[in-house]
Description:
It is a single chain. With about 450 residues, the protein is mostly helical. It is about 70% helix and about 5% strand. The chain has helices spanning about 10-30, 30-50, 55-60, 80-105, 110-135, 150-160, 165-190, 200-215, 225-240, 245-255, 265-280, 285-295, 300-325, 340-370, 380-390, 395-405, 410-440; strands at about 65-70, 70-75. A hairpin with a 2-residue loop joins strand 1 (about 65-70) and strand 2 (about 70-75). The protein is globular and about 80 Å long. Na(+)/H(+) antiporter that extrudes sodium in exchange for external protons.
Amino acid sequence: MQDHQPISSIPILQKTTDSFFSLCERVRSIEAVGGMVLLIFATIAMFWANSQYADSYQNFLHSEISLNIAGWVFSADMHFIINDILMTVFFLVVGLEVRREIHEGALADLRVAFLPIMAAFGGVLVPALIYWAISSPNISQGWAIPTATDIAFAVGVLALLGKSVPSSVRIFLLTLAIIDDIVAVLIIALFYSGGLDVFGLGYFVAGVAIIILLQKMGIFSIFPYVFPSILIWYGLLKVGVHPSLAGVLIGLMTPVFSRPHNLSPLQQIENALNEYKHADTCDLQQSITKLKLAQRELINPTERVSYLFSPWVAFLIMPLFALANAGVDIGNVDLGVIGSMNAMIAIAIALVVGKPLGIFLTTWFFIFIGLGRVPAGFNYRWLFLISCLAGIGFTMSIFIANLAFTDAILLSSAKIGILIGSSIAAILGLVIGLWVIYSMKNRGC
């Protein structure tokens, strides 16, 4: 076996490339960045939709993309591709997060998770009731819009407050937002899906069966799971359930353990390295393949898939979703239409008032009766901050609004209500967070 020739100096372009990728790794680890990118693209969408180039914005949303494979033709506009196909990957990451938290995270111990779980249910119930109480009958189907929390935005705003925020506060918000997402997914599946068509169940069952079979066969590579995942997505589309929910199901089915083997991944790597050192030219590639497989198993599939897709979700899919859905032409919004003004105000109030009220009072109640265990470093000031941040409903709220309202004017009004409510909640969260940190420093905490 021939050794690699030593390199006395690294080429300048290679150094530049290495520095660039190192910077990208640092950027992706900063939680506030994802929320900032989302905000930038939402702002671009608003300006684009209300500029002299508004027609090009609509052309972008309705531009057709076709795929022809051996006579099989698939055609869809950009809006469908973003909302129904790409958002499946977003829901996949949500499902992976839930799966991981159930296995070894905040949801693994129900005694610890009880308080944020109850808080999440309070944060869903109260804004829904407030919306229902102040909305007219023709817009009542939008009751679920203000029940959702945008994890990226909420955690991003919290991250802007710096290291003064205790880790228990972040974990409480994450757990609350995850439960919020689970409830939102269930709401979409139960209340915002069309009439069920049993014809699609065959595709759905086949996809699930193939995934289970592949796991039993010990195939833990990602690519073989693409085809059954497409079957599940297509099956849900045919059944009448929103197809992007396939991502949640696939995420929940992803194993949290590495591929079963008689040896641990570290032992496999050690054996593969020994083989590599003593391999001749013919066996060299085989040794390298074993080394790659062993290295892959160091990280369980849930972590591996999440690490692979999270950057795409944070820096491509969610920004595209914001670009495709936040662009409301304010000039075309007619608040004189019955229910239009009502929908906007009801959503904004439910997000800004209903969310904090539901979360804070529910948490206080269970602490008061002794069923809730307060995390270390957690107090009512931090709870008030979290309750306000949970009113940032952006991504999931817009997603539900698209399902709730078919009328373009009502949908535009709903989106404006979401943007207003989410913006106020974010500003309130920042102001309250700065006040809490300032007061704690003055008290020497």
